[in-house]
C-alpha cells in the first residue's frame, strides 16, 4: 500500500522509473519503512543475546565501572550512528545519491583498499553473529529442558544435556526463514522479535528484583569479582572480555544503512533514522542497566554468564520457560536481521558475475496453499541453506557463549561502529585536518581502538582456556 491508497503492482522486470507514487527517486519501488519499523529493526539487533551477559560483565567490572562503561558505550554508539546515518546519501540529505549498504557508503566516501577491508570486517561480523545467535538459542532451548528436569527431580538430577541437537533444530528453522528473499519483507519478524526481547528482559529484571527482595541483600562490590574467586591474571582477562560483551550488546552499526534504506521519505531518511536510533538506544540502555545491575545485585561474583540460562534462578520454572522461549523467538528474528544483508551481498555479486546463468538469476513462481504464491531462486535456496549449515557446524565446535560474544563485540566495535563512520563523516563534511573537531574525533577513535584490542585479547584468552576442557560434539552441560 502506497500514498493516497494507491496499490502498485511492481515487478522485478520493470526497468527503473522516475520518482512517482510507486517509485522513489532512484527508480526502485517506493520504500514503506517508518520511524517505528526502523526502531523495531534496531531494537531487534541491539537487545539481543548480549543483554543476557551484562550481569556477568558488570560482575567483572564492579558497581562503579560497570554502569559507567554501559553508559559510555551507549553514548558512543548513538553518536557515531548519527554520523553514519548522514552518509546514507552523498552531499545532499534529500536528493544525494543513495548508499544502499555500508560498503556502498565506504566506497563513495573513502574508496580504495578501505572498501575491501570494510567488506571483510562487516561480513565476518555478520557471519559471527549467526554463530553467536545459534549458540545463544541452543543454550535457551537446553535451559527449558533443564528447568523442567530440575523441577521433576527436585534438583537431584544434574540434568546434563548435549547442545548439538538444539543447534541443529535452530539451524533447520533458519534454513526455512532464510528463503525470505528481501530485508524489507522482514518488518513483521523484527516487530515480533522486538516484543520478545522486551519480554525476556523484563522477566530477567523481575527475577533479579525478586531475588534481592528475598535475600534482602545487594551483592557485589565496587571493584568487581574478588581475587580468590579468580586469579589476578584471570580477573584482568575477564575485565577485558567484559568490555567485548558490552560492545556486542550495542552492535548494530554494521546494518544501520541497510535498515535506513527501508525508510520512506520525506522527511529525509537521515532525520528518521536519527530519531529511531535515539529511541532504540535509550530504551535498550535502560533495559541493559536494569537487567545488568539487578542481576549483579542478586548474585554478585556468582552472576552467571547467561542470566536466564546459567541457573542462578530455578523457580518459578514456568516463568523461566516463557523467558527462554521468548529468547529463542527473538534470536530467530535477530539471526535474519543480521544475515539478510550478507545474503543480499553474495547474491548481488553472483548475479553481476554470471548475469546469463539461469541457476543464479531465474525466479520460479510457485503457488503455495494459503500464501497465494512465492518466488523461488535455486541459487538463493542452495547457498543460503549451505551458509546456515556451516554456521551451525562452527557453533557446535565452539559453543562458548561469553567468549564468542566478546570476540564478536571486539571484532565489529572499532572498525564498524567507530572508525569508518568517523572517517566517512570527516570526508563528507570536509572537516579540516588538525581542526578542533578533527582532533576530537581522532581521539575518540584511538581510545575505542585500545578498548577493542583489549577486549579481543581477553575473549581469545577465554576461548583458549575453555578449549582445554572441551571435547567437540561430546561435552554436555
From TrEMBL:
Keyword annotations from UniProtKB, A to Z: Amino-acid transport, Auxin signaling pathway, Cell membrane, Membrane, Symport, Transmembrane, Transmembrane helix, Transport
One annotated GO molecular function: symporter activity
Intracellular or extracellular location(s): Cell membrane; Endomembrane system
Highest taxon above the source species: Eukaryota
Family per similarity comment: Belongs to the amino acid/polyamine transporter 2 family. Amino acid/auxin permease (AAAP) (TC 2.A.18.2) subfamily.
Protein name (database record): Putative amino acid transporter, transmembrane domain-containing protein
Signal sequence coordinates: none
Topology of the protein relative to the lipid bilayer: Multi-pass membrane protein
Transmembrane segments: 35-54, 61-80, 123-144, 186-210, 276-297, 317-338, 382-401, 407-426, 438-465
UniProt entry tagged with the keyword Transmembrane: yes
Function, in words: Carrier protein involved in proton-driven auxin influx. Mediates the formation of auxin gradient from developing leaves (site of auxin biosynthesis) to tips by contributing to the loading of auxin in vascular tissues and facilitating acropetal (base to tip) auxin transport within inner tissues of the root apex, and basipetal (tip to base) auxin transport within outer tissues of the root apex. May be involved in lateral roots and nodules formation.
UniProt-listed GO biological process terms: amino acid transport; auxin-activated signaling pathway
Domain Amino acid transporter transmembrane, chain residue ranges per copy: 32-464
Transmembrane helix recorded as keyword: yes
Gene Ontology CC, one term: endomembrane system
Amino acid at each position: 500500500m502506497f500514498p493516497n491508497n494507491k496499490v502498485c503492482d511492481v515487478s522485478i522486470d520493470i526497468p527503473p522509473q522516475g520518482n512517482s507514487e510507486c517509485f522513489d527517486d532512484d527508480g526502485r519501488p517506493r520504500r514503506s519503512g517508518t520511524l517505528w519499523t526502523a526502531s523495531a529493526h534496531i531494537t531487534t539487533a541491539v537487545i539481543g543475546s548480549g543483554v543476557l551477559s551484562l550481569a556477568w560483565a558488570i560482575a567483572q567490572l564492579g558497581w562503579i565501572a560497570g554502569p559507567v562503561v554501559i553508559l559510555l558505550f551507549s553514548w558512543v554508539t548513538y553518536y557515531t550512528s548519527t554520523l553514519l546515518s548522514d552518509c546514507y546519501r552523498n552531499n545532499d540529505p534529500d536528493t544525494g545519491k543513495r548508499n544502499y549498504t555500508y560498503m556502498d557508503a565506504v566506497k563513495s566516501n573513502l574508496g580504495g583498499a578501505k572498501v575491501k577491508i570494510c567488506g571483510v570486517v562487516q561480513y565476518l561480523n555478520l557471519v559471527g553473529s549467526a554463530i553467536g545467535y545459534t549458540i545463544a538459542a541452543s543454550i535457551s532451548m537446553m535451559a527449558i529442558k533443564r528447568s523442567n528436569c530440575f523441577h521433576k527431580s527436585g534438583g537431584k538430577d544434574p540434568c546434563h544435556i548435549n547442545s548439538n541437537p538444539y543447534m541443529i533444530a535452530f539451524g533447520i528453522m533458519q534454513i526455512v526463514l532464510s528463503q525470505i528473499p528481501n530485508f524489507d519483507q522482514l518488518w513483521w519478524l523484527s516487530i515480533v522479535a522486538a516484543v520478545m526481547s522486551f519480554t525476556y528482559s523484563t522477566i530477567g529484571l523481575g527475577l533479579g528484583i525478586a531475588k534481592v527482595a528475598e535475600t534482602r541483600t545487594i551483592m557485589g562490590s565496587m571493584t568487581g569479582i574478588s581475587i580468590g574467586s579468580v586469579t589476578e591474571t584471570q580477573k584482568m582477562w575477564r575485565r577485558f572480555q567484559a568490555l567485548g560483551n558490552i560492545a556486542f550488546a550495542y552492535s548494530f552499526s554494521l546494518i544501520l544503512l541497510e535498515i535506513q534504506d527501508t525508510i520512506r521519505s520525506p522527511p529525509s531518511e537521515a532525520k528518521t533514522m536519527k530519531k529511531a536510533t535515539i529511541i532504540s538506544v535509550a530504551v535498550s540502555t535502560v533495559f541493559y542497566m536494569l537487567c545488568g545491575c539487578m542481576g549483579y545485585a542478586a548474585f554478585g561474583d556468582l552472576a552467571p554468564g547467561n542470566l536466564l540460562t546459567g541457573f542462578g534462578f530455578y523457580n518459578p520454572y514456568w516463568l523461566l520457560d516463557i523467558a527462554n522461549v521468548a529468547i529463542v523467538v527473538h534470536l530467530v528474528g535477530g539471526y535474519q536481521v543480521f544475515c539478510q544483508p550478507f545474503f543480499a551481498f553474495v547474491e548481488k555479486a553472483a548475479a553481476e558475475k554470471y548475469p546469463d546463468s539461469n541457476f543464479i538469476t531465474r525466479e520460479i513462481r510457485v503457488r503455495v496453499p494459503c500464501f497465494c504464491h512465492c518466488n523461488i531462486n535455486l541459487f538463493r535456496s542452495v547457498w543460503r541453506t549451505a551458509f546456515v549449515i556451516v554456521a551451525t557446524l562452527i557453533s557446535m565446535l565452539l559453543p562458548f557463549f561469553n567468549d564468542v560474544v566478546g570476540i564478536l563485540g571486539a571484532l565489529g566495535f572499532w572498525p564498524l561502529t567507530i572508525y569508518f563512520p568517523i572517517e566517512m563523516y570527516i570526508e563528507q563534511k570536509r572537516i579540516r585536518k588538525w581542526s578542533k573537531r578533527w582532533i576530537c574525533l581522532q581521539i575518540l577513535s584511538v581510545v575505542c581502538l585500545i578498548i577493542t584490542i583489549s577486549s579481543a585479547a581477553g575473549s581469545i584468552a577465554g576461548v583458549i582456556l575453555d578449549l582445554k576442557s572441551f571435547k567437540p560434539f561430546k561435552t554436555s552441560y
